[in-house]
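Protocol step 6 of 9: fold each sequence in the batch and record its structure tokens directly after the sequence line. For illustration, a two-sequence batch is reproduced in full.

Sequence one:
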Amino acid sequence: MTVRSAAAHGRVTEWDRRLLDPFTPIMNRGRPAGHAGQECRQQQKLRRSEILAAIRRLLAESGFENITMRRIAERSGYSIQTTYNLIGPREIAVIEAISEYSLFVGRVSSPQADDPAAIIEIVHRWIQSIYAVPEFCQQVSKIFFSDSRNVYYEFRDRQLRGMKSLLRRQQEHGIVRKNVKISEVAEDISLFASALLIEWSDRPFPVERLHDRLRSGCSGLLSDNVDAQYRPALLKWQAAAAN
């Protein structure tokens, strides 16, 4: 198992920042135009992605409580009716905007089920996305303190389902031990990361410290649940966070 050195403190390249920019529509990132028969559907997906990117920018700039359907429409350049038709009501729209970006971050880490470093790669990308645009990540976590806390929980539950799916596939490949309860491990990782990010958003401390605590905590939670041959690399990654 190898761990990318690029996750070291602050080592986020300009290419990484552009790739992980939450304010760029996801559909604009190297997707093919498609055949003529698919053009209408592709255009609709692009409009939706542009609106979701506008929501993420509003969230970073003003916070969840200041997002309205009118402001979303104004920032995206589409009418209120078009915006509503494509993304639904405000709370659902915010969930979709955050989830689209979260899925994209996971996808660019390219985790393979038979790769022992898959979870590490996802954590690596989490960290890079925080370094790239910390204010967006802070505002996502601050939704927890709003009257619409269900928005935060829905987003977190979607992440949790993805984590469970990956860990189950890793168990099938013999990376995670057979007797491990996947749901419990996934929930432990999700709860740890969520609690840490909520604390960081409410009482900010240096991103470097957040980085170290995420690395140490996630690797510690994983190390007891993987096959013995993969444990030393996780422990090494955990120890690096303390140096």
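Sequence two, same batch, same settings:
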Amino acid sequence: MNRTYLLKSGLFLLAAAILLIAYYGGNTVQESSSSSSELIPPNEEKHDMATLLYQGHGSFRLTTAEGKVIYVDPYVGEGYDAPADLILVTHQHSDHNQLHLIASRNPGCELISEKEALAGGKHQTIDLGYVKVEAVAAANKNHDPAECVGYILTFSDGLQLYAAGDTSKTAQMETFAARKLDYALLCCDGIYNMDIAEASECAALIGAKHSIPIHMAPGELFKRERAERFAAPSRLIVAAAEEITL
């Protein structure tokens, strides 16, 4: 009788202990989850590294580590849904300035075109905090240097990206190697701008860690055959609609 009673009592206490552990353990998890959600709002994305979405032709979208969205020479492709914080236009040819494609702009969105970049007849530098935009020379027989620019972008983490715009080799490119650029995006269509051979020469001259061929042929988002002929030792081929981490 006593043994049976003790056994039943022991089982009752064990069951009660299991229930208490489950109850308080569950509350601890919930409280921990609540604390985490207070620290990181559920609708706020975290961005640790910058990315580049190549939209095709001369168009691409950058997203900084802070989550700022930068469009460069909007014209074709997909990926214009993210609200813009900065829009860069290298010149006013119709395959570089289709601003209507960008679905929306965040409050305070900046538009920098060659007009702002060449204010006062000089290449300007505009520091927005999350990125520094430095206008540089862009020119050839089809592109007046007084109406066209390229941009060197320096992000808050120090990463540097050169967007050449429409150009051929310029004297200023000779100074870029000393800057140890991380990325250079170079046109190579050979009709309105330098061809693949000259673009390869410029890539070697600039010496960026990664050289990406773009603007390969009129009316084409991307041509792999031409991209593979781009002979830069630092060549990085990015297809249209492909996104990479910088």
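Proceed to step 7 once all outputs are recorded. Observation for sequence two: The helical segments are 2-39, 114-117, 196-206, 224-229.
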